[in-house]
Amino acid sequence: MALVSAATSIALLGLVPTVTAGSAQAGDSAFAPQLVTVDTPTREHKRLLQSLGLDLTEHAGHDYVEVLLHNGVDRDTLQASGLGYDVRIADMNRREAENNRVNAAYAAATAVSPLPSGRDSYRTLADYNADIEKLAAMKPGIAKRITLPHKSLDGRTVYGIEIGRDVNAAEDGRPVFALFGVHHAREWPSGELAMEFAYDLVTSYGTDARVTGLLDKSRVVVVPVVNVDGFHQSRTDGALLDLRETDDGGTVTILGTPGNAYKRKNCRLVDGVDTPDGTCAAALTSPGGFGAGVDLNRNYGGFWGGPGASDLFADPTYRGAGPFSEPEIQNVRELVSSRQVTTLISNHTFSNLVLRPNGVHPDTIGHDGLPVGNAPDEEGLKALGAEMTAANGYANIHGWELYDTTGTTEDWSYNATGGYGYPFEIGANEFHPPFPQVVDEYLGAGAYAGQGNREAYLDALENTVDTTTQAVIAGKAPKGATLRLTKTFATPTWENSFTDRLDTSMQVGATGKYTWHVNQSTRPVVQAKLVEITNDEPVRSQSYQGGPTTVGQAVDHEFVVTETGMDVLGVTLDWPTPDDLDLEVYRKNADGSLTKVGSSGNFVGEKESTEIAAPSPGTYVLRVINFASTTATYTLEATLFDSTLVSSTEVPGLIETWTLSCEKDGRVLQQVPVVIDRGEQAKVDLNTCISRWKSVL
Length: 697
Ligand SMILES: [Zn+2]
What we know:
This protein is α+β, with helices and mostly antiparallel strands. The protein is 25% helix and 29% strand. The strands form six sheets. Strands 5-6-8-7-9-12-10-11 form an eight-stranded mixed sheet, sandwiched between helices. α15 packs across α16.
């Protein structure tokens, strides 16, 4: 393969310790959970990090991954690996308590926030359920509560909301946009933004022409909290963290169960064994309870069990006992299998990313013995990603550029249905930041004010109804007939395959004509694909030493890019004292003026880094600002990363069909195969069904 730094990587890989951190109880009771930034200059370093069983966040760049260390054993494992790291948040419990104080102050000072719901604080699970009922009651003609088919492991009912014109009428062939939140328990904003979009749609229908037009042509299904058990535990434990006694002389100190404020997985307590209803909270006492459970975003059947998913129960990315073993994920599977979901977004936190398939690097050897390659719809997926990131300011990248994953929502949904699917990684810094940041992420702030994820979701909804990115089947059929599109196929896991079935239906209206917006008949996973072997490695690095500086002073260093076609310019700033330098990066224009292209202003004590995508040739100014630092020296490093094409091969594909049935009272009167591609329209008159309709009772 084209990984050039093999010598150093193999040396590193020789150091892999066999200890699995997540399986141990807290090894060091004095150790508070920490968020650390681990240096991963090559993909080999990322693979080494992934092999350690540590709790990787969804925040990573070309040369780093952030990791949550829950206990001293985790820290020792990371240190033994030989990977370098910096501590970014030294005490997550203290940070949680600080956030709780900020949140309380914001709520006290805010009567009605600018969010569609007016909320000024994070919802509890009860709040989500109440809001879903409230919206359905507010506009029963366009919003209804849906109950997902499976209760959670701990016995909770999972609710969603369906929104669209005449929402209670029979399915009439409109395409569906599906929006999910909280697969991972601690990622609270991922549910908030989904719920706010539901509020927005329901309250804007009839007054906002754009929203009204979109809901006339589509249905939107929002499930704000997929992992209800895990979220409930994270949310309630997180609220308990209160360090007032130590911080400002208060009289109350309540230490919650901090491990569970940062719980990731679901409430599977014993692998392969059902969890008795109502026992999860009592069983998962802190610390160490974070180790139990299944990573719900590794439990989907598509490529289940491949790179980036663990087969060890205690690991943070545990894939589960089998594909779709978890009821919370069976819920999503059945929802997506029974609707024509042409666009799907699954929200996560954090890293300011819009990710797209595939979840593993293109040169990874896949289930069929061939390199996985790019998604067949790379161009279209990237274009919609670009539109959405123009609204929220996030980076528009492949899933594997974060790190390798398999068994994710999109690995299955995109490859089984063809509907576009994206994970969003919301927010810059942490799993559940102070609530005002949630407001900004939804509505947009700074350069993105008035856009934000609200606009990104609307872009996704526009794509949902866009006939150039989906297929349309239309024709004549008997009034009142049920039309059904089905497809049964083998979905590949990483090692094997399982039988998968899509079964969607609609009812023909009074005109005797139907129009059905559907996904293409051939699954992406069997389509022809382009396999590109690329080499993404650092090509040139330049170091600068500086200091001392005085508080308020800014020092500029210049870095000249002469190379064309570079993919990333990464700039890092490091210094020995635990105080505050900031970093800004500018591009020098022809007239000498400067345009800011990147910045990093982290918390006190955290090191700074920023990445500039596709840096064009020219002069870049790297500005070090002494915000509050006594350091005598600092080190600034600029690195250019390039992704070069090593080889390109076209792998031929298959053509698959939908089976279209015309039914009267469950009896099939006509069945025809339909082959249709993305962007195509097919006319299918169901004349046999029409002629038999009257003679069949
Ligand atoms: Zn997540």
